[in-house]
């Protein structure tokens, strides 16, 4: 059997080293973590000839990594001076559609940092646009305590984990249907789950330390294992039957 195919959304950026013009990028650490887990990561471009529900039909899982800030207009706010949205105006819509399509197809989803925040926004939640300058979340390591009965606690095999944190925004109002299953010592929501869906979303960056930390690598292992547990490589092609253009969760 071939390796599970994991779609990883690319960030369309104006400047990428080695290219004359703009390009689509994913952190190598994210891709390597998928490979270590036994998956085949493929970058998904922000534009395509078909709807995301069709583009994802040959994939077994979806990973939405970190990146630029979500446009605050999506949750009804004006931008804070520190908010830095994506270079490509439709980046948010692209990734939001990808998440919705994956949930409709029934393929597992891992959302990291920006992906975590976008998931919250798309379910009606809001964000704190700029944490205090002294916040430990901006660039450091802090503990996250997990709900004992959560899928995440089971995956990580712990009640608390140290995490690599690099974000200046955070969940304010939690999105509809989401369950907060991890919090930092200051109360910031660091992980959510969507009951009845194969989805894990974390605010931190597990790829930073996954190469040497089995607990962080376990998140990518979970994604690939759940992808493999579907109908096989490219199994989403079978799961798409009958759903048509329905991409809502």
In brief:
The protein is of the alpha/beta class. The protein has helices at 28-36, 52-55, 91-105, 114-122, 151-156, 214-228, 236-239; strands at residues 5-9, 11-13, 23-25, 40-44, 61-64, 109-112, 127-128, 140-146, 160-165, 170-171, 179-183, 189-193, 199-202.
- Number of helices, counting only DSSP H or I runs of 4 residues or more: 7
Low-confidence stretches: 236-249
Share of β-strand residues: 15-25%
User: Helix and strand succession?
Assistant: EEEHEHEHEHEEHEEEEEHH
Percentage of residues in helical conformation: 10-25%
Computed Rg: 17 Å
**Mean of pLDDT:** 90
Oligomeric status: single chain
Euclidean distance between termini CA atoms: 30 Å
Strand order of the largest sheet: 4-1-5-6-13-12-11-8-9
User: Based on helices, strands and strand pairing, what is the structural class?
Assistant: alpha/beta
Shape: globular
* Number of beta-strand segments: 13
User: Major sheet: size, sense and barrel closure?
Assistant: 9 strands, mixed
């Amino acid at each position: 059997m071939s390796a599970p195919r994991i779609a990883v959304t690319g960030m369309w950026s104006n400047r990428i080293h080695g290219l004359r013009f703009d390009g689509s990028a994913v952190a190598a650490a994210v891709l390597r973590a998928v490979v270590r887990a036994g998956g085949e990561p493929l970058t998904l471009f922000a534009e395509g000839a078909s709807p995301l529900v069709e583009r994802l039909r040959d994939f077994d899982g979806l990973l939405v990594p970190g990146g630029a800030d979500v446009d605050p207009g999506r949750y009804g706010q004006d931008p804070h001076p520190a908010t830095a949205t994506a270079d490509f105006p439709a980046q948010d819509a692209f990734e939001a559609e990808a998440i919705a399509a994956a949930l409709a197809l029934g393929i597992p989803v891992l959302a990291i940092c920006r992906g975590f925040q976008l998931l919250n926004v798309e379910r009606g939640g809001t964000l704190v646009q700029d944490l205090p300058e002294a916040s430990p979340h901006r660039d450091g390591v802090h503990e996250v305590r997990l709900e004992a009965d959560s899928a995440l606690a089971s995956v990580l095999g712990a009640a608390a984990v140290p995490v690599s944190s690099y974000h200046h925004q955070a969940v304010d109002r939690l999105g509809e249907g989401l369950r907060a299953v991890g919090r930092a010592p200051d109360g910031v929501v660091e992980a959510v789950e969507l009951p009845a869906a194969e989805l894990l979303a974390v605010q931190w960056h597990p790829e930073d330390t996954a190469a040497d930390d089995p607990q962080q690598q376990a998140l990518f292992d979970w994604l690939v294992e759940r992808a493999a547990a579907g109908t096989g490589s490219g199994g989403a092609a079978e799961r798409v039957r009958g759903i048509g253009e329905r991409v809502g969760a």
